Amino acid sequence: MLNFNHLHYFHVAATERFIASAADQLGVAPSTVSEQIRSLERALHVQLFERTTGGLRLTEAGRTVFEHTSQMFAASQRLVDALGKPSEERIVLRVGISAAISRTMAADFLMPVLTIDKCMPTIRSGEFSLLLRDLRAHELDLVVSEAISPDQGGALETALISTPRLVAIASPDTEPADGWRNLALLEYSPASAFHWEVDAFMRERELHPSAAGTLDDAFLMLAAVTRGGFVAFVPRAVAREALKAGRVKQLASFHTRHASVHAIHHTGTTLRVTRDAVQRLIDAARENSDDTEE
Fold first, then answer.
1. Residues 134-188: pLDDT tens digits?
2. Could you tell me where the beta strands, DSSP code E, fall in the chain?
């Protein structure tokens, strides 16, 4: 018979990724957590973690065990709720946000996740390929990204959150010449989906501003534009307040075709908080939609 206490210590350690953090969460000494994990490894005859400078990393066997413990403790939460005695324990939701999203629309997309009842979100940003790797390894529960998972095995689901509107902004005194030839454009790097959206938009309208520099931070673009001399395409959510205050003016606007924001999670996930987070992200995006704005 497996010791369920050992499984619980393992599950918390896998979630926290550090022995000390797991010990704080459990209210025990770090040595106790380590011993409980070693006892479970002896019982299962496998190694569950690799110890790295960045914390605990699940082995292949550890990922398999974590899949099962995730379902076990999610089921225990449902049992408590079904008996009408809601648990006071907060469930950890591990969220990864792609670098492009975190540098442009982080506030709009993080707030719904931060307000989920009885949830302790842990949020980190990174490159999409690395976040997707950790999601597949069950080291993340949810990834928010402008890219779609190429997963072919049906293990992951993708939900569309929103299709952002990009607006071309310039200083209020800017008067663009034909083809914007008198303007200097701050561009996204080719690694960003926004780069190709802007490139296609300008080719269709025969706009030819000079290249002023490459950035992937829309807030930095906004700051540069307010100081004058540049034009930049940024998500309307980023420029909304500056437009209302008259610090910048809008030269053009369009909805992206391919650079949509998506939520990616495990197919058929049993974690209520993951499903709740995805729905909140979608609802918040609809409420903040700029479809009716010019």
1. 888 878 888 888 767 666 556 788 888 888 889 999 999 999 999 999 999 999 8
2. 49-52, 55-58, 91-98, 119-126, 142-145, 156-162, 165-170, 184-187, 210-214, 231-235, 249-255, 261-266
